[in-house]
Amino acid sequence: MTFARILSTIGILAGMAWIGLFFMATSIGAKATTTEEYLAIMWPGLVAIAAGFIAQWLASSQPGIAIVFGWVSALVAPIGLKVVL
Fold it and tell me: Residues 39-59, buried b or exposed e (16+ Cβ, 10 A)?
């Protein structure tokens, strides 16, 4: 249970950092003109945050499933960085 919470916390923080970096980049001049372009760039952060919150929610009742969501949450932002860039 604790391991799933640690993984999901790392994933939530990574997802928030991803989205924060994206908005910082757009504020200094990077352009994403359509909603599809915004979502194409931000999907790793959004998935990391969503999976992290699901892992936190399931950690006490179903720790096996929570660990899976925790790993997804912790790994999707770094993998997404490689895919998007």
Answer: eebbebbbbbbbbbbbbbebb
- Please report where in the chains the tokens 């990574």 appear, as a residue: 14
Tell me if 8 sits within 8 A of 66, measured CB to CB.
Answer: yes
Q: How far apart are CA 51 and CA 71, in angstroms?
A: 9
Contact 69, 55 (CB under 8 A): yes
pTM of the full structure: 0.81
pLDDT tens track of the chain, all 85 residues?
A: 688 888 899 889 988 888 888 777 777 776 766 777 777 778 888 888 999 999 999 988 998 999 999 999 888 877 877 766 6
- DSSP H or E run through 49: helix 35-58
